[in-house]
Amino acid sequence: MRYPDGWRVELLAKSHNRTRFQSGQEEVDAWLKKTAFQSQKKHLSSTKVLLDSESHIVGFYTLATSQVDFSDLPVEVAKSLPNRQLPVAVLAWLGIDQSFQGRGIGKRLLATALKDCYDAAETFAFIAVILDCVDAPSKEFYQHFDFSELPGYPMRLFLPFRLLEKLAND
């Protein structure tokens, strides 16, 4: 993923100034400011921040792992899988500071997060990337990138590994 010169993606550190970050979504901002670092220290999730050339946080994403029940998957996805809890990667959070929204940065940061998931699949297998949308516009954003609804969970989306693999190799 290409970002402007001097921008970089780093693992969230205590030294990153999170207080200035404002995405316009209170839940997203609260996660980054109050919970993300603690969750990372406890090895519950991993948060990466996109920093501009002045080390201000432009955006961030949080990844984790979980399981989904076989019965929660669409029939076409589940038909070749064992009938049990199945491993998934979770895109737990993604946010872009309001002052940088509308410039395609969210798309690039999502691509970076999905590349991290794809790379992790060489070590930790999973059948899909799942996420929970905070609102309808967020849902629409992810659906533009081939995420689909999990049956019975209108705000929970998934991207099967085969599609992730296709995206990573295009």
- Globular, elongated, flat, extended or rod-shaped: what is the shape? globular
The amount of beta strand, in percent, is: 25-35%
Major sheet:
7 strands, mixed
Radius of gyration: 16 Å
What does this structure look like?
- The chain contains five helices and seven strands, in the order βαββαβαβαββα.
- The relative contact order is 0.16.
- The radius of gyration is 16 Å and the shape is globular.
- The chain has a seven-stranded mixed sheet, sandwiched between helices.
- The protein has helices at residues 26-41, 75-78, 105-120, 136-143, 161-169; strands at residues 8-11, 46-51, 57-69, 85-96, 128-132, 148-150, 153-160.
- The mean pLDDT is 95.
- By secondary structure, the protein is of the alpha+beta class.
Topology:
Layout: E1 8-11, H1 26-41, E2 46-51, E3 57-69, H2 75-78, E4 85-96, H3 105-120, E5 128-132, H4 136-143, E6 148-150, E7 153-160, H5 161-169
